[in-house]
Amino acid sequence: MKFLLRASPLVLALCFVLVAQAARAPKSAVFNSPHDFKTTGEYSPGGASYTLCNFCHVAHKFGSAPTGPGYLLWNHKLSNVSNYGVYTSDSMRSTPSDLGGQMTVSNLCLSCHDGTVAVNSWYESVAGKNFQPLPQDTLFMAEDHTARDLTKQHPINFVYPDATTAAAVGILPAADTNSIDGSGNVPLFSGRMQCATCHDPHAGPSSGGHLFFRTFPSTAAQTTTGSFCVYCHL
């Protein structure tokens, strides 16, 4: 006698959610990545930082950015660049906003990557492994890592087009204002595309590599071309 077991819709939905969530790397994946200044200490003169997270974040904030830690408990000094410029093209239907003077996830990235602020610059001092404050304001990103001119970069800080517009210009409509894929693996921030839509600053060596690319949902086109660009660009 054979028995046929059927999973209820609720169980199937739960399994789907769990699988979708499992694709996202945990924050601890930053360990041994290029953003792990506890272990590598590449930009930590005098030794690596004492904890894994305090090179960028502070658990107890003492002010409000830009005069002190604020958004996402960010502890790295922000850039004073007032005009990064924005990318334009004939196919775009949304106009990016210049990041100068704003406070977005992308501004946090640029506080190191635009090359104007030393990587070891913080509002609150960061302790090294010897529990002593690490030196500040001495190490900058190499020139070829900087991004001061965003007119020549993939556009960021723009409202992702609505479903009708997205389909008309050949990009994947977003599932909601929080992510393109609907499960948070390709996130949007208040409906806007930012640096962290494609790059996960906490991604580990096995997933994001040195460029911290997110693990995009697999599609036939992506598998064929070997490029995650075609996940959004149909």
Summarize the structure.
By secondary structure, this protein is mostly helical. It has helices at 9-22, 105-113, 163-169, 195-198, 220-225, 229-232; strands spanning 158-159, 192-193.
Mean pLDDT over all positions:
82
Helix content bin = 10-25%
Distance linking N and C termini: 49 Å
Largest sheet: 2 strands, antiparallel
Widest sheet: strand ordering: 1-2
Number of helices, counting only DSSP H or I runs of 4 residues or more: 6
Number of strands: 2
How large is the share of residues in beta strands? under 5%
What is the radius of gyration computed over CA atoms, rounded to a whole number of angstroms? 20 Å
Order of helices and strands: HHEHEHHH
- SS-based class: mainly alpha
What form results from the Cα inertia axes? globular
Question: Which regions have little confidence, pLDDT < 50, spanning 5+ residues?
Answer: 1-22
What's the SSE blueprint?
Blueprint: H1 9-22, H2 105-113, E1 158-159, H3 163-169, E2 192-193, H4 195-198, H5 220-225, H6 229-232
Account of the 3D structure:
The protein has 234 residues and is mainly alpha-helical. The chain is 19% helix and 2% strand. It is built from six helices and two strands, in the order H-H-E-H-E-H-H-H. It has helices at 9-22, 105-113, 163-169, 195-198, 220-225, 229-232, and strands at residues 158-159, 192-193. A two-stranded antiparallel ribbon has the order 1-2. The radius of gyration is 20 Å and the shape is globular. The N and C termini lie far apart (49 Å). The model is unreliable at 1-22 (pLDDT under 50).
